[in-house]
Fold this protein.
Amino acid sequence: MNDRAGWLPRIVGHRGAAGLAPENTLEGLAAAARLGARAVEFDAKLSADGVCVLIHDDMLDRTTDGRGPVAAAPWRAIRKLDAGGWFGPDWRASRVPTLAQALDLARAHDLQCDIEIKPSAGREVETALAVVAEVTRCWPARRRKPLMTSFSRLALAAARGAAPRLPRGLNVWEHPDDWAAAARDLDCGWVICADRFMTRAWAGAIRKAGFALGVFTVNDPRRAATLWRWGVGAVVTDRPDLLSTGR
């Protein structure tokens, strides 16, 4: 693996442990740690007033009891929302955490982080710079650096410019013709692909090009075993418990 790739283990909890706890919450990250995960992936987006929060969608509606765009909601409003009731009544105390809170929990549980920069439209550079600033402020210099990933090439370029020593990964959907050129241009160590489009040939091409390979989202232990045989370095999963036990 090249030096710019940083490090991820074979099993990475998706949005914490999204099959067992509400995604992108502290409870979900802690659940992944209890299940033996050594790394977690989560999404970072900006509130209206520039606070980095953990949420995947552009809208609040699916994973909170709020309504409307995340980018239009200030942190003082987001922090009061129920971020767990949609998943089950026992999770109603869950809240949308800040990136700083997530990094604190990850440090406490000795978790490596795959931070997906998930900007709202038009906030690609702003979001990347805010994420990098929080990581630089919160993450101990002596520990393995978190991996910065994104589908947004603008965001990755901004992250590279602000903190070139933080490792980066290009997220891709389907099989874009320019994946290799884009990953090289952005000085990415990882290419992280959707499982539904992953083939043995593409896995081989990514590895031959010198990139570490990640695949999302994989919840079948047999599929994970196949991917590992193909040389996949990290599998992102909603169920780290199933992949770690092989059930």
About this structure: The chain is about 30% helix and 20% strand. Strands lie at 11-14, 39-46, 52-54, 112-117, 147-150, 168-172, 190-194, 212-216, 234-237. The first helix runs from residue 26 to 34. The radius of gyration is 17 Å.
